[in-house]
Amino acid sequence: MDEKTADAFVNRDEPVPLLAFSGTTGSPSPDPESKRSRLRESISNSKLKEKLQDGASSRSETGFSLQDRLLTKLLQQVIPTENIEELLDLPPDKRSSKYIGRPGFSIPLMTNNFRRFNSRIGIVFVFQTRLIRLLTWRNPIHTLSLLAVCTFVCLDPYLLAVLPVAAALLFVMVPAYLVRHPAPPPTIVHSSYSINGPPLAPPRTIKPAAEMSKDFFRNMRDLQNSMDDFSTAHDGVLKIITPPTNFSNEALSSTIFLFLFVSTCTLFIASHLLPWRFISLFFCWSSIILGHPSVQQFVLNNRESHLRPHERKAQSWLDAWIARDIVLDGPPETREVEVYELQRRKGGRQGEWESWIFSPNPYDPLSPQRIAGERPKGTRFFEDVCAPKGWEWGDKKWILDLGSREWVEERMVQGVEVEVEGERWVTDLVSDDETGSTPKKGKKISPGWEEGDGQGPSGMWRRRRWIRMVRRKGVSSVNDKNG
């Protein structure tokens, strides 16, 4: 194993430190059942096989080993040909290789790309390590220089345009020139560095770290630690942000929403009046000074005696303000639901009415169900009518809707006779083919509606409307009922 690769950017210092938060015990192991279901939902087997075939066809040009080709062929035989998306009636995946010109998923190609990526990622870890050294005051001169630069940029934001040009000049051009024109060795007495003359060394070319070298494994070590850092930071941020913002505590989330709304309106109007240069200077100096080990130790030592009382006082004030001004126990939302009691004649047009069904639709002569020849849908008994999902009954019993004319006009029901008094039945009128006056193929319904007392000739169906109030059910009551 080679010690290092020449002309390669590799972090040869200490490893990138791992982030840690109090109360975290590592990444939890995923549930195999949920992981399997997510995999089944996210990618279909036939498409995976198709992508493997695409990868196999492209690997012949890149020259993969025989072992990689055999592994791909084996995976193509193991993956079944059934398309789960067709079985589940899912829309086509636009990320498929049919729609984009990128290589499909391939394990050998993934392995090759990871090796290439790991050989070239060292420059990121070098920058990360040097930035950590800079912010943790390893070299106070460098950190004070950073503070000076930040001060100039904060006080004169137009200097931001100078930073990338100066960085290219100082960190790219000058080091490249010094490589070609190195300084004389210290053994030469009274020697002075001269910029004249021909170059004394070849130019430096950045090369990837050689595989199976120590630099290659250093990159793998830092990449491993960076993945753990990202996972830890992700979980830590979610642990802090999610509880107060997901409305699990509605009073606290409502307070945060109110503060954010007021802040947005205020900044939209008065943001040009704030001294942003001094604000940015304050945050820049505070963040860099807090990175000093002595300052961190001082803050930790005095947190319990100085910061904790102020934190408890602020928390108590916030809780009191929420309890006094945030009102969430208002009356629940209420709605009116309806059901139609349908009756049908027994034994023809002169027969007696019999109770048929309680339906959410009036089943009028021009309803789609009636025209299609379908039977009305519903329940046989009043007690079986349930409240909508997520709602509960607000009244103890159903109430007959006495405004039969209003709901008939509101729903534009035609071909019916309306009782404006009594039991408020809305009865079908006799059609022309039933009376025998106009023998035609189709059934012709009398247009509009008529007022009546229900004693004249009528059709086979009649209905009346019942109403009842419902109120929205809270999550706690749903959980209690399920529990």
Structure description:
By secondary structure, the chain is α+β, with helices and mostly antiparallel strands. It has 17 helices and 8 strands. Strands 1, 2, 3, 4, 5, 6, 7 and 8 form an 8-stranded mixed sheet that branches. A hairpin with a 6-residue loop joins β5 and β6. The two termini are 62 Å apart.
Q: What is the makeup of the main sheet?
A: 8 strands, mixed
Strand content: 5-15%
Low-confidence stretches: 23-33, 435-446, 477-483
Q: State the end-to-end CA separation.
A: 62 Å
* Percent helix: 40-55%
Reading the helices and strands in chain order gives HHHHHHHHHHHHHEEHEEHEEHEEH
Q: What count of helical segments does DSSP give? A: 17
The averaged pLDDT comes out at: 78
| SS-derived structural category | alpha+beta
Radius of gyration: 39 Å
> Which overall shape is indicated by the principal axes computed on the Cα atoms?
elongated
How many strand segments? 8
Outline the fold blueprint.
Layout (H helix, E strand, L loop, with lengths): L31 H11 L2 H18 L3 H13 L5 H5 L18 H14 L1 H14 L4 H16 L6 H19 L33 H32 L4 H21 L5 H14 L3 H9 L1 H23 L8 E13 L5 E8 L8 H4 L19 E3 L5 E2 L3 H7 L5 E4 L6 E3 L3 H4 L13 E4 L8 E12 L2 H8 L1
Parallel strand pairs: 5-7
Antiparallel strand pairs: 1-2, 1-8, 3-8, 4-8, 5-6, 6-8
Helix pairs in contact: 2-3, 7-11
